[in-house]
Amino acid sequence: MFLEIENINKSFGDESVVIDLNVSLEQHKTLSILGKSGCGKTTMLKIIAGLVVPDSGSLSLDGRSMLEVEPAKRNIVYLYQEDLLFPHLNVFENIAFGLRIKKIGNVIVKSQVEEMIANLELEGQADKMPHQLSGGQRQRVSFGRAIITNPSLLLLDEPFGSLDAGTRKNMQGLFRRLAEKFSITSLFVTHDLKEAILMGDEIAMMESGNLKVYKDKMAFVEDSNTGVKEELTFWKEMMG
Ligand SMILES: Nc1ncnc2c1ncn2[C@@H]1O[C@H](COP(=O)(O)OP(=O)(O)OP(=O)(O)O)[C@@H](O)[C@H]1O
């Protein structure tokens, strides 16, 4: 498999935060991970990104062992909820940043960034500074900045957590379209049940450091632990 995580464990002091983590994910797929606050989701993502060192286990991406590789060389992008844009750069330059670092020529930068701005539905916003954007627009710029460098793996930590319901719904649709168009492989962490079902090709749930990956969405829906059944009962009772 493209992403293979085997038996990763992590404790802080005597608190086991990630327990026997096992994940395999095909390229170009999204695994959504549902989990409550404090269950260890962020620690798991940080281990994959190389920002936290696990106590044991292995991690490989595209057949290459990753734990020895420093974070900047993993080609993994970790995107979190309040991801900060560079405040002194406009939308165009924020998105262009990863290309500029790679010393890519101006003509190519211009065409790639303009195409990305169109894909992000941010036409006409290229010259705005981050503080002039709405939350949803800022989040789109963050996506663009991450995707344009063509990462092997995108780690999304509750990326829409701070958005209102309507904007969140738009962003979910936009992310699905971008994931398809740019053949993104990603882990999508959320505490929203519906979002987990909508965003993932595969689905998993994390509870107190244990990640359970379901064989398919039906298995997830049928597990009474996930809360789907409760939700259905609620709506049935509401409707009489
Ligand atoms: N550097 C650290 N030192 C000590 N304990 C830590 C550290 N990082 C995380 N923890 C603990 O590990 C547990 C899981 O934290 P983590 O941030 O992974 O949770 P989470 O599922 O992402 O939660 P949230 O959704 O609230 O961000 C928490 O009890 C937290 O206090």
UniProtKB/TrEMBL annotation:
Key words of the record: ATP-binding, Cell membrane, Ion transport, Iron, Iron transport, Membrane, Nucleotide-binding, Transport
Matching Pfam families: ABC_tran (PF00005)
GO terms assigned for molecular function: ABC-type ferric iron transporter activity; ATP binding; ATP hydrolysis activity
Any single GO BP term: quaternary ammonium group transport
Cleavable signal peptide: none
Gene Ontology CC annotations of this record: membrane
Domain spans labelled ABC transporter: 3-233
Protein name: ABC transporter domain-containing protein
